Structures are given as structure tokens and as C-alpha cells.
Amino acid sequence: MTASANTDVNGTVNGADAGNTVFVLVHGAWHGSWQWAATQRALAGLGAASVAVDLPGHGFGAPLPSGYLLPGRPGLLTERSQLADVTMDDCADAVLDTLRRVRRYGRVVLVAHSAGGGPASLAAERAPELVDRMVYLSAFVPAGRPRFFDYLGAPENATARGQSLNLGDPQALGAVRIDPLSADPAYVEELRQAHYHDTPADRFDRWRSALSPDLPLSVPATPVTLTAARWGRIPRTFLRCAQDRALPTAAQDLMIAEADRAMPGEPFTVHTLPGSHSPFAARPQELAEALVR
């Protein structure tokens, strides 16, 4: 890709180009487009437009297990998820639909967080002409290993917190299920430590109450195949989260290194943000500034 007058030699956005750039924001597991709201306000203040995607089965319209809001939580450990049939293709199609709609407005930067890296990567592989740069915010990069589970089970991820949050048998449920509304103080604290340890305490309960309980199993389990001729030609940035406890920096660095070995023609530009796996909750202004830079 040839750098324009308002981009630097690496294709990154500078202040003058922010007004001609649309950020397409893809959330991670159990979240939704709402996770980006504060970051979008900060981006708007910096002169940048943005659109946040709800992947299938996520957001405030996500179907819940039938007993999720009932006393005693009947069936929470055993009821098969209504999202069990959601596929990786479905999720990539949601990203592609947004990319096609915003392309006419100018330069497009596709931003993915955590498990959203799978659908975002597949969308970019299928239509690289719709993406001018990809940004992975502590996100799964399938260039070295095709499934998110492949990295979650790697030795470099052994110190990750939050794995004890999973309920039931994911294969039987068709989803990776958690219980954001749990009344167990130990469970709630593990959720906070894994994802939101630096989010102000008075905001944490609001954040967890908005989470959906089910992540379609296809998102971490489906292999995503990338090619050098398509995904590999898109300039890419990795925003590392330095105190990430859900996806430790060793696992983030493994994905970066393996992607660069697999696709050496367009290696990652790497920047590090302070804090947890969820900078959109803890420091959205700083995240927005990093994206615009």
C-alpha cells in the first residue's frame, strides 16, 4: 500500500488524517459493541469516526440461557446455548458487512480485541481491499496457529487468569459459558482480576452486568487460515497490554513472533499500553490516542 500525504511511512494515522479515517471496532468474548462507547467518544473528540460491530450472539440483543435471570439459575451448567450454531463465517460476515458500508468514507482501520481477532482476521483475509490497516488489541492473531484455543493452551499462556470462570462442558453447551451475574464473591473477584483489575471499582459491577454469558464455541475453536497474498499484505499493528492477566504478554508476544515468521513481508508494528486486558474500560482516552497515533 502506498502511504498518502497524511500517513507516515508505516501507514499509521496521524492527526491530520484522523478525519479521513473510519475505525471499525470488533469486540472480544462476552462483550459487544457497547464496550467501545467511551473509546468512541474519545475518538470523536480527536476528530476520528468509528463504527462498533456486534458479532452474532453478542451485545444487548444476545439470547440468554433460559434460567440466567431466574432465582437458582436453573440449567445454567447444562442447557445448550442458543448460540451453538453460530459459525466463524457468520461472525466474519458481520465484520465484512460493516467494512463494505464504511469503505466509501475513506481510510479504514480494523481494530479487534481479544477473541474478536479471529472474525476480524477472516474478514480481512476475504476482502483485504476493504482494510488499510489492522490493529490487534491484545487480540488473537491466527497467522501462526489457526485456532485461538491453540494459543490459550500454550505454555506462554500458563499464567493466564480467568480459566476457572468457565462453566459446564463447552462441547455439550456449544459455547464457552461464564456467569457475569454470579453471587459468589470469589468468582466475581476472579472475573475482576482477569479482565478489569485496573477498572475503577465503582464501575466494575456495571461492566460485568453488561456481559453476555455465552461465547459461541466456534469463535475460539474454528481454524482461521490466512495467506500472505491477502491478509499478509495489510499493514498491521499490535497493541500489547502490559499488565494483561487474561492473555499474558508472553502469549501476546508469541502470536506476534509467529505471525511475523509466517508473513514476513508486512511485520507487526508493536506498541505497549499500560494496564489490563480491558483498556476500553480502564483508560479509553489513552486507547483512543494510541489508535489515532
UniProtKB/TrEMBL annotation:
Domain AB hydrolase-1: 23-290
GO molecular function: hydrolase activity
Protein name according to UniProt: Alpha/beta hydrolase
UniProt keyword annotation of Transmembrane helix present: no
Source domain of life: Bacteria
Record-linked PANTHER family: AB HYDROLASE-1 DOMAIN-CONTAINING PROTEIN-RELATED, ESTERASE_LIPASE_THIOESTERASE DOMAIN-CONTAINING PROTEIN
Entry keywords, A to Z: Hydrolase
